[in-house]
UniProtKB/TrEMBL annotation:
Annotated keywords: 2Fe-2S, Iron, Iron-sulfur, Metal-binding
Domain Rieske intervals: 4-102
Top-level lineage group: Bacteria
GO terms of molecular function: 2 iron, 2 sulfur cluster binding; metal ion binding; oxidoreductase activity
Name of the protein this chain belongs to: (2Fe-2S)-binding protein
Amino acid sequence: MDYIKVCTKDELPNNSQKVVNLDTKKIALFHYNEKISAIANACLHKAGPLGLGVVRAKYDGMYVTCPWHGWEYNIETGGAPPGYLDQQALYEVKIEGEFILISKEPIVNAHKAHHDNPLLEDLMKLKYQTSENSLNVLGISTTNMSANLPRFSTSEDALEKSLTYAQEKYGAAIKMVKLRELEFRNCEGYYSQHSHACTWPCSITQMNPHDGMTEVYESMILWADIVIVATPIRWGNASALYYKMAERLNCVQNQITISNRILVKNKLASFIITGGQDNIQQVAGQMMYFFTDLGFTFPPFSFLGWSRGWTAEDMDKNVMQFKKSQYIKRTTMEIVDNCVELLKQIKNVNSANINAPLPKPSDSLSSEIENKDMNL
Ligand code: FES
């Protein structure tokens, strides 16, 4: 077996670790409990850098936790924790004088066990449920309230009106998703480590397919032709639940960045924004910016707003006035009419010809600089 010098012993004192090059490969080298061991640096999941992970005594030995999404490997055997079948490539280590050498080839080959979850198959394979003739209208209500104390919501009521109208006037298939009824985790910011750490489907969803965002991804990306998002205004912004969902949609937009893959095709979005006082235009601008970056198209006049002005602190009259409003009655129908009208046209657009003029990692001013610890 051939061995290659990778560093000196001084460069790897006890209780330390580092990433070294072995020809074109990167190896995570560990020195714990006076033992030196070497496994491939690229995590079997999405190639996270194992050499940067935290090492701790766990289960039946010393384990490194991948810094991207938490897969674990025994640093001396390369094996996954008890009960898992994954095996990371393991290299032999030799000491010659002051030098640490690693076998040129692994002494145990890598093996990735099957991890696909049937619950996520449609998302993984992007099995779109739209067709040339489909008219699937999705409403997403982002208002929050306690299930024990239900109350009237202006944004949700307007959304229900729009969906009912779409069904009655156009025979649309309709679906309402209420974010407050879905339990889902906040985005945990894996993108901040590396653009490839933000995966499709979302890595949180992959860890837990019962996470409520699975329903949002399936309904919004695979099922809907038209998405109408309704939000109340909270301190001049969309609701906290809206932002919680938006952060978890980074994985949709990130597919464009890392794989040049636009997941949202031939779909329209419109918005319902209601508040006691003001700031409708700012909220609409925020939402429209985000949804265009996902790949949605907007009809002209793509939102309806309801507010009663800066001095309208008499909130007890808000619902009363809303229920009487002819403007609400009319515009909940008009935003649907505009969407349906435009949908007929965008159904004929060949989305393969649509570009996403977004920055790619290669556009970065630091793209030429190598990060020696990374595998990608
Ligand atoms: S856990 Fe290592 S890349 Fe996902």
